[in-house]
Amino acid sequence: TVAYALGISHLDRLTRDGIRIAIDQFETAVAIEPDFARAWGQLAASQGMLGLFGFAPPREAIEKTRAASLKTIEADDQFYLGHSMLGWVKLVMGDFDGACEKFEEALRLNPSAPYALHGDADCLMLDGRMEESIARLRELVAVDPFFAIHSLPLPIHLYIAGRLDEAIIAVQDMHMRVPHYSMHWVLALIYWEQGR
Predict the structure, then answer these.
(1) Alpha carbons 146 and 141: distance in angstroms, whole number
(2) How far apart are CA 9 and CA 21, in angstroms?
(3) pLDDT digits (tens, 9 = 90+) for 111-156
(4) Are 116 and 149 in contact (CB under 8 A)?
(5) What is the 3-state secondary structure (H, E, C) of the chain?
């Protein structure tokens, strides 16, 4: 539907207004077509981002993310996004093992599932497997290079790994692909670390 397409367009802005408009559009899409698993999944992602970026109380955002994730799975239990978003809910709530299992389930359903690739990379990082995490994020960027939320983790993980020159290159590459999203804050962290 048009509402779904508008939701995707607004979500990638990663602004308070963009995410809220995306939520409204995805809610319109599922009101029109209640079994629209993709719209439910993107609604779950949008609710999660609203909390992640501090635009809504975290508990409220997590509960709305959980509810939309379950509706996604109810609409189509073989659609990866519902499982991916439940993985994020579990990760935020501190259920590390449960989160990683949900990301693995989503990747079993779709080996190129962007939110699951990102979640799996975070699981690898939290398990101390930084090289595998970075490799997974390079895969994510190859799968979905033009969506800001999927380009953002690679420079951050490179920064965390102390691979600062690579992190700068990843920020520059991201800026070329996703020019509307500012990564100056990541560059500031890197330059501070480098003593510039």
Answers:
(1) 8
(2) 10
(3) 999 999 999 999 999 999 999 999 999 999 999 999 999 999 999 9
(4) no
(5) CHHHHHHHHHHCCCCHHHHHHHHHHHHHHHHHCCCCHHHHHHHHHHHHHHHHCCCCCHHHHHHHHHHHHHHHHHHCCCCHHHHHHHHHHHHHCCCHHHHHHHHHHHHHHCCCCHHHHHHHHHHHHHCCCHHHHHHHHHHHHHHCCCCHHHHCHHHHHHHHCCCHHHHHHHHHHHHHHCCCCCCHHHHHHHHHHHCC
